[in-house]
Amino acid sequence: MQAWAAWRWFAVFGSLALGACVSVEVPPSNPQTHLEVARDLRRQEDVRGAIAQYRLALGSGLVGERRAQIEGELADCFRELGNDSEAREHYTRALRNARSPQRRAEYSLALAELGFAEGNLGSASYYLTEAERLSPTDPGLRDRLQFGLAALAYEKRALKTARSHLDRVRGLEGFRTASLSRSRAFHDFVYRSVVESTPPRIESPTAAVSWLPRRSWGARALGANHDRMEKIWRITVHHTAMLTWETTRAASIDALQRIQRNHQVTNGWADIGYHFLIDRAGRIWEGRQLNVQGAHAGNSEVNRGNIGIALLGNFDAQKPSTEQLQSLRGLLVRFCGEYGVPANNIIGHQRIASTVGKTTDCPGDQLRVILPTLIRDVRTALSKQAPSTASPVQLAGTATSLAGPVGPH
Questions:
Q1: Is this model's pTM higher than 0.85 or not?
Q2: Which domains does the chain have, with CATH numbers?
Q3: Is 70 helix (H, G, I), strand (E, B) or coil?
Q4: How many H-runs (helices) and E-runs (strands) does the chain carry?
């Protein structure tokens, strides 16, 4: 007892002697701070770090709608990591705490999708019924509900009912990640119903195309570990595999910066891998300069003389916008004419990656089915006109010629 008392007094006087640099009080946890840190970590793709912060936020004794929101975001993180059991637990807690019909519908749909992933049709049916009863108004939630109802009908062999649900969706947003059925036949059924039933309409672009330069999106400097571009003879088309419906400049700038950070910091590349990126509004953004070999096709051999063009979006889960297709067509016509690239040398990433023993779903099913039409359209355009040498249209005074500067960046 005396030893403990002595130690207690030593701690008190020791802390006083050390001054303000020693604190004997632990400030209370601030759930909002932890929530903001968690969301920031998710934007940086540090999912495990975000999970730790969400748990700290939940440790503050929150209840009701606010707790439901945090439980739901934490469940999303576990689902992203493939930990369905933890995801189910937190979605269930979120549903228990939520009061808003839209939130309750969202968590019910998530639990239904987990039911499908586990082959538990009883659970999937129960939560789909709950979500349908709540009548979600958000377009994305309505699409998810229709996909779920279609999957349930398909499992019961009610194909006409399944197709009627698919007729009500806007696109394939969230379909593949939702894991609505383990059946490949159902996936094929969905793609035939939603993708192939609406053939793409590709408008002719204006005679001249333009691009927004690197400085317009705050690109980081090019690293030293790069090679100069060789004679251009091929073009590879990609998607970024990042689901987005955003059309604002700010959203596109944020996406480009995240892609570049991932390519430079995570992959250790000299720069963003693609030479051009096209957002859903049809804006063309300069990525890696054309005088620098890209990092997009599979390895340095197939990157040589190869222009990489990526469309923002995940075309396994959504359709490219009409504006994106117009801009892509314009770029392809321009580059094929300017550099003498045959239309047959326009290729999707999946096809070129397979030549070096790599597998990928890029550029996504819904862009892949459009590529033959695009290539045929480019071939027709080239046969009707000489290579364009016209000055490009300026975008808000900041666009640059597609021929581009050839000096170092």
A1: no
A2: 31-194 (1.25.40.10), 214-384 (3.40.80.10)
A3: helix
A4: 17, 5
